[in-house]
C-alpha cells in the first residue's frame, strides 16, 4: 500500500484519500464517537400545597443527569438536555446587613423581617429558611479608630454602639421566623471611619462557610443590604495587609477572625466562590449607589440589584421581585474543559426563542413549570448538574487485536498491529530489524545515499536502520517517496497553476497523463473536436490539429479552424470564372476551362428559387456575379463532408435591356426649357421687387423736400485781392472791393 520510503504513519488519511490510493474499504479502520446516557430521571412535576413532601435531593429539575461521551478528534457529539423549574422548590435565604452607623434606622425595620418574609415566601414555597449576618469593617487603622475608647464604642455622643467587627454570623439558616426577629432585635449599630465597607469579606465567608451557615442543596439566596460602597482586593494595603484572600472559611464562634490578616477578595474571586456554591446574590442598596452595584451585577452571574428605601421599609417587596427576576432566567456554565475539547450551545427557549453561541447559554422569562431544552452542563444558581464522562477515541480497534512479539516483526521484536510493526524498546526499523545498541549510524548512512551523492535520503528524510524514512509534509496530499526519498508528487511541471495541468498524476516528479493528454505538464490535448470545422474537416483541410489547436500550414489562413484569410478573394469571386466558363462557355477561363475548372460538380437549375437554401448540413455560399456581357448570373457553392465541392447555377443569366433614346432626348429638352422658364420668372420677380422699392424711396423723398424762397433784396459779393507787399518783412495788405449785382 505504501510507496517505497513512505513512513508507516502515511497510512492514516481521510476516507476519500485512502480509497483513491487503493485501500480496500473492508481494511479501513474508522472508529466513531458515541454517547450513552447512564442516568436519566424524569424532571419532577410537583405542585405547591401537595400532600407529598419531597426532600430537596429527591427533586429533579434537569434531565439527563449522567452520560458518557466518546469523542473522536473533529467529530462532535450532540445531546439534548431538559430543564424544568420545579414548583414549591425549597429556598434558603441569608440576609447580610451593613451595621455601620448610617444604617441605624434600617436595623429597626429589619428586626421584624423574619416573620413578615416567612409569610410572603410561603406563597412561593412551603420549605423556606432564613438566616442573618452583619458586617462593618476590618478592625485595623485606617478603617476604624483603634483607640481603646473607640474600640469599646465607636459612636460619638451618648450613642450606645457595639464594638466594630468585620463579619458576624448572627443566625444560621432556620425555618423559625420568630427566632430571626428575636436575635436580630438584640443587634446594635457599630461604626467605622471610611465610607466604603468591608462587605466583600462577609460575602466570601457566607459563600465558603456552608456548614456554619447551614446551606442546603436547594435554591440559595444571599441578600446584601448596604447604603455604601465596598472595598476590594488591594485596598488592604492601606492597613498594612498584603496577603491575598485565601477563599477559605475562618469563622470562630461565628466571627470572622482573619480580617486583619487577609486582604479583601477580588470581584473575580467572589464570582468563582459564589458560582461554586450556587449562591444567587441580591444587592439591596440605596438610590445613591445604584449605578455602582449595577456594574457589579454585570460581573456576577445570577445576581440582581434592588433599590432600598432610606429606612429599608421596602425590603420584603425588593426580595420578592429580585427572586422572581433571578428564577425566571437560566444561565448555563461548564467546568474547566480538557485541552482540545470545546462546547457549543443551542437553546430552545420559551415562545420559540432559539439562540446559539454565548446567547445559547441563556433562557429568560421562564415561569414555574416551563421546560427548557438545550445543550448544557449546569444551570447557574442551581445545585443540580449533568455529569459527563468524556472518553477519547485515540486508537483504532485493530490495535486491541495486535500480536505481541510477532514473527512478522523480525523474530518477535515488535507487536504486529493494524498491519504494521510497533517495535519493542531498543529496536528500530520498519520491521524492527535493528537494535539501537548495535547500529553504527555512519555505516547505515551509506545505504541511504544515492550514487555520487553526499545527501542522506536526498535531504527529504532520515536514515533509520539503513533505510530512508521520508519526511511528512504539512499538506498530507504531498508525499516524498523512493528508496532515497528522491521522488515526490508535487514538483512536476504545472499548467494553469495546476500540477500536470489537472490532467495527470505526478509520480516521482514526472507527469503521467490521463488518456487523450500528453506533454510534460499534460497540457496538450489529443482531442480533435476543438479543431473540427463546420464543414466536418479538421482545420478546414488547411492545417494540422496540435494540442487541441489548429496549426495552419498555409500562412495566409488563420482562425481557430484556419477559416479566415485576410488577403484571399471571397468564395464567389474565387469560383466566378470557372462557373462562367462551364455554365455559359465564356469568360476569361473559356480556353482552359477543362483543365482548371473541373474540381466541382455542377448542377443547372431553372430559377433562383430552385437554388439550395440555407439550413442544409453542408456550408453554403450564395453568389451573384457579372459575366463578360454585363449580365448577372447566380450560383451557390458548398463543400460536403467528403470534401466534394458542389455548384448549383441558374441556367439563364439576367441581362439588362438597351436604353430608349427618344424618351431620353425628350426629357433632356423638356428639362432645359423648364429650367430656362424658371430662371426668367425668377429674374422678372426680382426686377419687380427692385422697382417697387425704388419708387417707394422716391415718394418718401418727395414728401420730405423743402423749397427755400429767394428774396428780391440785393446781396453784396465780397472780393478779396492780395496786393503786393509794401516792403520786406511787412505784413501783406488785403484790399476789399464790393459790388452789387443787378
From TrEMBL:
Keywords: Calcium, Cell adhesion, Cell junction, Cell membrane, Cell projection, Disulfide bond, EGF-like domain, Glycoprotein, Integrin, Magnesium, Membrane, Metal-binding, Myogenesis, Phosphoprotein, Receptor, Repeat, Signal, Transmembrane, Transmembrane helix. One of its GO terms (biological process) is cell-cell adhesion. Disulfide bonds join 155-161, 209-249, 394-398, 409-421, 418-457, 423-432, 434-448, 463-468, 465-500, 470-485, 487-492, 506-511, 508-539, 513-522, 524-531, 545-550, 547-593, 552-562, 565-568, 572-581, 578-655, 597-631. GO terms for cellular component: cell surface; focal adhesion; integrin complex; lamellipodium; melanosome; ruffle membrane; synapse. It is a single-pass type I membrane protein. It comes from the Eukaryota. One of its GO terms (molecular function) is collagen binding involved in cell-matrix adhesion. Gene3D superfamilies: 4.10.1240.30, Cytochrome c1, transmembrane anchor, C-terminal, Laminin, ntegrin, alpha v. Chain A, domain 3, von Willebrand factor, type A domain. Residues 684-718 form the Integrin beta subunit cytoplasmic domain. Pfam families: EGF_2 (PF07974), EGF_integrin (PF23105), I-EGF_1 (PF18372), Integrin_b_cyt (PF08725), Integrin_B_tail (PF07965), Integrin_beta (PF00362). Residues 572-660 form the Integrin beta subunit tail domain. Residues 1-396 form the Integrin beta subunit VWA domain. The keyword Metal-binding applies. The chain crosses the membrane at residues 661-683. Its main location: membrane. It is found in: Cell membrane; Cell projection, Invadopodium membrane; Cell projection, Lamellipodium; Cell projection, Ruffle membrane. InterPro entries: EGF_extracell, EGF_integrin_1, EGF_integrin_2, Integrin_bsu, Integrin_bsu_cyt_dom, Integrin_bsu_tail, Integrin_bsu_tail_dom_sf, Integrin_bsu_VWA. Belongs to the integrin beta chain family. This is Integrin beta.
Amino acid at each position: 500500500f505504501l510507496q517505497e520510503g513512505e513512513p508507516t504513519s502515511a497510512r492514516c488519511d481521510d476516507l476519500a484519500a485512502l480509497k483513491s490510493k487503493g485501500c480496500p474499504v473492508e481494511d479501513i479502520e474508522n472508529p466513531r464517537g458515541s454517547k450513552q446516557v447512564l442516568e436519566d430521571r424524569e424532571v419532577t412535576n410537583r405542585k405547591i400545597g401537595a400532600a407529598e413532601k419531597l426532600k430537596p435531593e429527591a427533586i429533579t429539575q434537569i434531565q439527563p443527569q449522567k452520560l458518557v461521551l466518546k469523542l473522536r478528534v473533529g467529530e462532535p457529539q450532540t445531546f439534548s438536555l431538559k430543564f424544568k423549574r420545579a414548583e414549591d422548590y425549597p429556598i434558603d435565604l441569608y440576609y447580610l446587613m451593613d451595621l455601620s452607623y448610617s444604617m441605624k434606622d434600617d436595623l429597626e425595620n429589619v428586626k421584624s423581617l423574619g416573620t413578615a418574609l416567612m409569610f410572603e415566601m410561603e406563597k412561593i414555597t412551603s420549605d423556606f429558611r432564613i438566616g442573618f449576618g452583619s458586617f462593618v469593617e476590618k478592625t485595623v487603622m485606617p478603617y476604624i479608630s483603634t483607640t481603646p475608647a473607640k474600640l469599646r464604642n465607636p459612636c460619638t455622643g451618648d450613642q450606645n454602639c457595639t464594638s466594630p467587627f468585620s463579619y458576624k454570623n448572627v443566625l444560621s439558616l432556620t425555618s423559625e421566623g420568630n427566632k430571626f426577629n428575636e436575635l436580630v432585635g438584640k443587634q446594635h449599630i457599630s461604626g467605622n471611619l471610611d465610607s466604603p465597607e468591608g462587605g466583600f469579606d462577609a460575602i466570601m465567608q457566607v459563600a465558603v462557610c456552608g456548614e456554619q451557615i447551614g446551606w442546603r442543596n436547594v435554591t440559595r439566596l444571599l441578600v446584601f443590604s448596604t447604603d455604601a460602597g465596598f472595598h476590594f482586593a488591594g485596598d488592604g494595603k492601606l492597613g498594612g495587609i498584603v496577603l491575598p484572600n485565601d477563599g477559605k472559611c475562618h469563622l470562630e464562634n461565628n466571627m470572622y477572625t482573619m480580617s486583619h490578616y487577609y486582604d479583601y477578595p477580588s470581584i473575580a474571586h467572589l464570582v468563582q466562590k459564589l458560582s461554586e456554591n450556587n449562591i444567587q446574590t441580591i444587592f439591596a442598596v440605596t438610590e445613591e449607589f445604584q449605578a455602582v452595584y449595577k456594574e457589579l451585577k454585570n460581573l456576577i452571574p445570577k445576581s440582581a440589584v434592588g433599590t432600598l428605601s432610606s429606612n429599608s421599609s421596602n425590603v420584603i417587596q425588593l426580595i420578592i421581585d429580585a427572586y422572581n427576576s433571578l428564577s425566571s432566567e437560566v444561565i448555563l456554565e461548564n467546568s474547566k474543559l480538557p485541552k482540545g475539547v470545546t462546547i457549543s450551545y443551542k437553546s430552545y427557549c420559551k415562545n420559540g426563542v432559539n439562540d446559539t453561541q454565548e446567547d445559547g447559554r441563556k433562557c429568560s422569562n421562564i415561569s414555574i413549570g416551563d421546560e427548557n431544552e438545550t445543550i448544557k452542563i449546569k444551570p447557574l444558581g442551581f445545585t443540580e448538574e449533568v455529569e459527563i464522562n468524556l472518553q477519547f477515541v485515540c486508537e483504532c480497534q485493530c490495535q486491541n487485536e495486535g500480536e505481541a512479539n510477532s514473527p512478522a516483526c523480525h523474530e518477535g521484536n515488535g507487536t504486529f498491529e493494524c498491519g504494521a510493526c510497533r517495535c519493542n524498546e531498543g529496536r528500530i526499523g520498519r520491521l524492527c530489524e535493528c537494535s539501537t545498541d548495535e547500529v553504527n549510524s555512519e555505516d547505515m548512512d551509506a545505504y541511504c545515499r544515492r550514487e555520487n551523492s553526499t545527501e542522506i535520503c536526498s535531504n527529504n528524510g532520515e536514515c533509520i536502520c539503513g533505510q530512508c524514512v521520508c519526511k511528512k509534509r504539512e499538506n498530507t496530499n504531498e508525499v516524498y517517496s523512493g528508496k532515497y526519498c528522491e521522488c515526490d508528487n508535487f514538483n512536476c511541471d504545472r499548467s494553469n497553476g495546476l500540477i500536470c495541468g489537472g490532467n495527470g498524476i505526478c509520480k516521482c516528479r514526472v507527469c503521467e497523463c490521463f488518456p487523450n493528454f500528453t506533454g510534460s505538464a499534460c497540457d496538450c490535448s489529443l482531442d480533435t473536436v476543438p479543431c473540427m470545422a463546420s464543414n466536418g474537416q479538421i482545420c478546414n483541410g488547411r492545417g494540422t490539429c496540435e494540442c487541441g489547436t489548429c496549426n495552419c500550414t498555409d500562412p495566409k489562413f488563420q482562425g481557430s479552424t484556419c477559416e479566415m484569410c485576410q488577403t484571399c478573394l471571397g468564395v464567389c469571386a474565387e469560383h466566378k470564372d470557372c462557373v462562367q466558363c462551364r455554365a455559359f462557355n465564356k469568360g476569361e477561363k473559356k480556353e482552359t476551362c477543362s483543365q482548371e475548372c473541373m474540381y466541382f460538380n455542377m448542377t443547372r437549375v431553372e430559377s433562383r428559387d430552385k437554388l439550395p437554401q440555407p439550413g442544409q448540413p453542408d456550408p453554403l455560399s450564395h453568389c451573384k456575379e457579372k459575366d463578360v456581357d454585363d449580365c448577372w448570373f447566380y450560383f451557390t457553392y458548398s463543400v460536403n463532408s467528403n470534401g466534394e465541392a458542389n455548384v448549383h447555377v441558374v441556367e439563364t443569366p439576367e441581362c439588362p435591356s438597351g436604353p430608349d433614346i427618344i424618351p431620353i432626348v425628350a426629357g433632356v429638352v423638356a428639362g432645359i426649357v423648364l429650367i430656362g422658364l424658371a430662371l426668367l420668372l425668377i429674374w422678372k420677380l426680382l426686377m419687380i421687387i427692385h422697382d417697387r422699392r425704388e419708387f417707394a424711396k422716391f415718394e418718401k423723398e418727395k414728401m420730405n423736400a423743402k423749397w427755400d424762397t429767394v428774396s428780391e433784396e440785393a446781396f453784396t459779393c465780397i472780393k478779396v485781392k492780395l496786393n503786393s507787399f509794401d516792403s520786406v518783412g511787412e505784413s501783406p495788405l488785403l484790399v476789399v472791393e464790393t459790388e452789387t449785382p443787378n
